[in-house]
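**Tokenised fold:**
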Amino acid sequence: MKLQQLRYVVEIVRHGNHLSAAAEALHTSQPGVSRQIQLLELELGFEIFQRTRNRIIGLTEPGEIVFNIAQRIATDVAALKTLKEDMHSGNRGMFTIATTHTVARHVLPNVVEAFIARYPEVKLVLKQGDPEGICAMVDAGDADLAIGTDTTREFTNLVKLDCFEIQRCVVAASGHPILDLPEMTLEAIAQYPLITYDTHYSGRWKVMKVFADAGLDPKIVMSGIDADVCKTYVAKGLGIAILAAITYDPGRDPGIEARDVSHLFPSSTVRISMRPNTYLRPFLLNFVQSIAPDITPSVVRREVQKFQAG
């Protein structure tokens, strides 16, 4: 068994079971990847991948276990390769944060400003995506931390640190009748066209579950990938939106107003996700505590140790 064979397994899954795409990412040939997978399966005594007409369509049940192990090994090897650099870099180097638009736009600006002033020799990189996508970046070793809200998919290889809750509000164009209601109710909200987040965001599926549980089916006229997009079309009068309360600022959102609906819809948890083998550099620990003061360096170390102990 070779480390390279395990890496091939990981890359095939990451590229949607496309051998050609995995081979290109690995800078090798498709027949070479296929041959190494066959040799690994022969050594293990079972098939890792499901196939139809010589085409890979997914993982077998034992293949899921192989992939999880291979993924952990791949990230551990990557961590070892960068450990020497990290150990001697001190307060220098690259620090990559994967985050959502809402966090990047409404949570991180002051944190990043203070961080850059304190660590001028650290190159900070922000990568944006949906909550699952940013966790996948960290899982794959393409980012050091993910900062975002709840995901429907479990990332069992990552340590998760809960930071704070985001409440919800309903926003509408100024003068909209929903803003004058003495009491905000689900029934009242469901009467109007709804502009909502994309389906990958908890602000969409958590909100829609509340409506469904109440037997209501509001009309969704459009969805956006972030609150700023949604607010733009709310201001046009195309519908109302249920958004994270931190995304509404009366001073910067002309033409729209907001009402609290935290009593109707559950909050979303903003959490930091990281690999358990991440080297806990001082500036990383400082960045985490800048977002959530209660998550001190000792808390991070304790949670990592707890995760590693199983």
The radius of gyration is 23 Å. The mean pLDDT is 89. The domain at 91-165+269-309 is CATH 3.40.190.10 (D-Maltodextrin-Binding Protein; domain 2). The chain has twelve helices and twelve strands.
